[in-house]
Every structure is written in C-alpha cells, then in structure tokens.
Specification:
650 residues, alpha/beta, Rossmann fold, Arc Repressor Mutant, subunit A, 5-stranded parallel beta sheet, two-stranded antiparallel sheet, 30 helices, globular
Length: 650
Amino acid sequence: MRFENRVDEQQRITCAVESHAAQAGPLVVALTGMGGVGKTALGFHVARGLVDRYPDGVLYVDLDDLRRDGVVEIADAVGELLTGLGVSREWLERSLAGRTKQLWTRTRDKRMILVIDNARYGSEVTPLLPASDGSLAIVTSQGALYDLDGTAAVEVPVGPLDVADAVRLLGHLVDDPRLAAEPGAVAELARGCGGLPAALQVAGQWVRKYRRRSLSRLVAELTAELHGKGIPMVEAVWNAAYAGLGSEAARLYRLLPQLPGPLVEELSAAALLGCDSGRAGDALEELESAGLLAGLAGGWRIHDLLRGHAERLVRREDPDGAEQAAAGRSLITWFRRQAARADLLAAGSRMTFAELPGAVGPDVPDVEFAGKTEALRWLDSRRLALYGCVRLAFDAGLYEDAWALCEPLWTHFLDHPHYADATEAFRTGVEAADRTEFLPAMIRMRCQLARPLWEQALYDEAAEQMRHALHASEDLGAEPAERKLRASAVEFRGLLKSETGDWEGAAADFEAAKSVHAEIGNAYGVLLQTYLLGRTTLRSGRSREAVELLEEAHAMARQQGRERLAARAGFELGCALRLVGRAEEAQLLVDVALERARERGSRTDEVRVLRELAVLAEDRGEPGTAALHRSAAQRIAAEAGGLTDGGQSS
C-alpha cells in the first residue's frame, strides 16, 4: 500500500531514537490507533528509513497469527523470532525461560529493529524485546500498553488521515483526471472513508473501475445508500466494490473468512470454491484489483476490516449458513487430504487409523510434492492453517476430520514442537475421537497429547492421559494391529517414565511392548523397544546390561536398513562401551556416529558426539584433543543458536 504523510509521527519517533539513552534497554515505540488506520504501514516505513542506523536487520512477528482464544503463547512467539535470527529448529529450547535466554544471548550485541504487530498487552511484548539497548522495537496496538513496566517506551498515537492527506493518498492510488476536476467529490469520498488507508485503498480501486462516470455521480450514489440504509460511508464503499465483482469472485469473498491461517492461496481458494486453480486464481486477482485483497509473496491477505465486512455479507446473503457449511466441509477435507499425503511422503508407512479422503471434486487440484523434503516444508509452512482446521472441523461437528488431521500434525510436531498449537490441537483430537467412539483413535490421540504435555513438564496431566489410553486399550481385540496399538501405548507410558527418571518402570514397559511386537512378528517394533531398553538401562547406570541390549539393537538396525536408528544405537553403544572399559571399540563407533551426524546435517547430534569424543580423549590422557572437540561443539552450538553452557536446558 502507498504510504502518505505521518510527518509528525515520524518526527516523534526520530527524536526518540536520537535521544535514547545507552544502558536503558531497547527503545520501544508503541504505535496506537484503531484498526485500518495504517499503524503497520507506518512501522515498516519507519523501519526502512532507519536501516542504516540499525545494521543488524529487521525482524517481524504478528501476534494475531499466534493468538488462540485471545491469548498468545509467548514461547511460540519467541521461537518465531529465534528462527528469524538463524536459530535452527532443533536447537530451540522447550521452555519459555530457555527460549528467552536464547533470545537475550542472540541479541545482546545487536543493533536491530523488531516490529511487533497487533499487541494487546505489554506483557505480550516484554519477553520478545532484544537484549541490546542499541535496538529498536516498534509495536502496534489498538490501545495503550499500560503494562510495559520497566521499559523505555514512547507512545505515538496514530489517528486517521486528515482530508487533505487522504485526498493525496487517493491521488497516488488513482491516476485519473477526475480527481483534479472534481475536488469536492474527492474530498467527500475521502471524508467518508474516515481517513482509513484500508478503506481508501478499496475506494481508489472502485473509482478506477468506473472511469466513465463522474466522481460526483459515484459519490452521490454512495451517499444515497448511506442515507437510505443508515450505513457508514466506508461500508457503502466496500458494498459498492463488492457489487462490482463477478459471481465467482463475490462468492469467494464471502467464503474467505473461513480460511484458517493468515495467507490466502490459490489452491485453498480452489477448495473453497470447488473449482480448478485457474478459476480460483482469476477470482483472487479480481478481488485484488477491487482492493479487497492485498497481494503478498506466495499469496494474498485480507485486512481484518474487510474480513468483518465479508462476514456481514455472509449473514445477509447466506442466512441459513448452507453455502458456508458446504465450503467449509470442502476446505477441511482438502487440507486433511493434503496433510495425509504429505505425511505419507515425509514419514512413510506408519501406524495411522484415518483413511485418505478422496479428492474434494473433479477439478480441485492436489498439492504437488516433489519428495520428502518438500512435503515436510509444506506441513511447516501451512501449520497455522492445519492447526486451525482441527478446530474448524470440531466446531462444525466433523469429528472424524478433526482427529484425522492430528495424525499428520504428529509428524510435524516431532520436528517443529510448537507446544501451544500442538497441545490445543491434540486436546481437540482427543475430544473429537471420544465423540466418534472409535477406540483406536481414542487411544492414539491420548498418546499424541501426552508427549507435548510431558515435554512441557506437565507430568501429572500426561500420566492421566496415558492412564485413560491404557484403560481404553484393554477393550482392544487380539488382532495383530490391535495388539500393536496397545504395545505402542505401553511404549508411550515408558517414554513418560523415562522423562521423570523412573528407569525401572520405563524398562518394564519397553520390555512388555517388545514381547508383544515379537509375538505379532513386528521386527521394527522389536528393534525400537530393544534400543529404548538399552538406552534406559545405560541411563540407570547398568552399563554391562546396556552393552548387550545396544549391541543387539545396533545389529538389528543395520540388518533392517534403519540407518538413522543404527547411528543412534551405535552412538549409545559407544557410550556404554567406554563405561565398561572397551575404549577402542567405543572410539570406532563414536567416530562413525560423527560421520553419520554430519552426513544428515544434524547439528545437535554432531555436538552430542563431539562431547563424547572429548570424554574419550580425556580417558586416553589427551587433554589437548579433548579441548579441541569441546571447542568445536561449543562453536557449532553457538552458530546454531543453542545455549552453550553444556547443552540445551531441555
């Protein structure tokens, strides 16, 4: 969007920047004002003008994208910033305290700008601030942030544009001689838009569309609607833009508020409309041309004010909700189908219980995945939409869709632990599975929920979920698939016990699960439980027993072609061999583990192996070599953004 004026506001910000005292913490500029008034545009305009003063770059986070039921999960917001600062996902700390420490470590010497959009409370902002007093945070909010305690903050109210500035903005948006010929009509139109850039954008496109009519006539028609129906001028402008749309674009505009996630894409729009991507693309371009959508890299975005307008149109034109419901079902089915396809590519064949749904319609296209990497990337880039679809499905009574969507989200969670999103989605999955009374889903969803709970140290709640899962599993039959599911639930309980240091209990669960897998002929299940048993036995201090188990797991993993698990088992075996005095054998295995970690590009595994190599070198009486390994581990951890005080706190 074109930027206009705001000279006074910019001068206030410049003065604040120039007078900001060292050692006072980062400067916070709070841009406050109503929605649609142009706060975000002003924030980015200021940031672009100050890049020379802040050479370490600009970061952006929209808190509304991370808001659930009015609440932002701050740990996820800090995680977004850390990712922008180059911290690898695998190095993100689990806890808010750990991530905050990473943020402070990563920003303590920076001169950078942070733009925080759509804050509601100062308590949402404070944990996101850079550590350096040489940095600037630009925060947008509709109201004053009174609880920004202990922070050097300058509030800059952002009001609507005055009529003269609004007219100039229209002039930039519309290259049309009528604006100069009919200044009175232009001023009335600008005044009617309330000085809101979001409304002026639509008005400008509307004026461009009707080039043969005089502005006086156009504005008179709007005024007549205003007086006849008692609606605000800005609403009349949007209504006029909507009335000029073709039927497909108009229908898409009404349906867009259903889309979860911030981005509107061609394929998801096609799913809403039940058409091919070409027709959906045409409708999106028509909406952009009308000023009702903003074009972005990779898609489009609808302004919150216009989203509200579209919702009012729905209530007027689809009072029984039939159109919305049908489109919502189509959208949810499409996302479920794409997520399941991506999951199959990314994770391969694994224990899932939902069938792959058929295509939404004969013309609605699937996402084309080139391979595993692209499938994983799609799951991550669409995570907000996918997590949102779980709630949409549940609220629509589509309970099978709700829990089925949680299955591919499990694969995403394992690599990208967004705890707030995953916990909420898996809770919904549990409730949805209960509504369907489908026993395997009821068990599996509780296992999925337990893991993010215990990883957030919510051990009692995780244990309660596992208690219910195992109780439900008693009603499973004797078929191999049902026995495999029960063994999986027992394994999850063992993993929870490992987290709490109950090594004996964990070993008993892994042993029980292993026996079931052996009885049903599941070779991979036997391998995995043997590895978990060996690792648990090693942690409990029984190194000689651990050697036997890990040797068995290592041999089985190699025989089954499970390269990643073979590398893990080999590393654990190396650690166990060192503890029982078989250092030469340990050295060989740990050297191989280092090679495999580097081949996979796993920096966390590389650091773990380097630290073990340092211990082996010390045991050989080579302190110089040990120091080199530790230094290399420290350097890699620092480069990746991890905490370097001996490893991740999680």
